[in-house]
Amino acid sequence: MGIESILVFLIVGAVAGWLAGLIVKGFGFGLIGNMVVGIIGAFIAGFLFPAIGISLGTGVLSAILHATIGAVILLVLIRIVKQA
């Protein structure tokens, strides 16, 4: 994996985490936290979507959408666990 791929990976994670924080009100973790949430969200969606047969396409925009949906799922799960 080249430096460009790592940079794109981090940017997609940061944007996805930031968007998920906007969608799920009350969650904002700063730049590094948003990157982590976005990257973990991408992994969640990467396992979940193929299992249920959903494909969002290819490219950077679909990667951001993919990671954002996974990050929203992660943040909702965190909210549920915190309330329990």
Give me a quick take on this structure.
With 84 residues, this protein is mainly alpha-helical. It has 3 helices and no strands.
Report what the structure shows.
With 84 residues, the chain is mainly α. The protein is built from 3 helices and no strands. Helix 1 packs across helix 2, helix 1 (3-23) packs across helix 3 (60-83) and helix 2 (30-52) packs across helix 3. The longest helix is centred in the last third of the chain and has 24 residues, at 60-83. The model has no long low-confidence stretch (mean pLDDT 84).
SSE layout:
Elements: H1 3-23, H2 30-52, H3 60-83
Helix pairs in contact: 1-2, 1-3, 2-3
Describe the structure using short key phrases.
84 residues, mainly alpha
In N-to-C order, the SSE pattern is HHH
- The total strand number stands at 0
Please state the structural category: mainly alpha
In DSSP terms, counting alpha (H) and pi (I) runs of 4 or more, how many helices?
Answer: 3
Low-confidence blocks of residues: none
Given the C-alpha coordinates, what overall shape results? Answer: globular
Alpha carbon gyration radius = 13 Å
The largest sheet, given as strand count, sense and whether it forms a barrel, is: none
- Report the sheet-strand fraction: under 5%
What gap, in angstroms, lies between the N and C termini? 40 Å
Helix content: over 70%
Mean pLDDT, to the nearest integer, reads 84
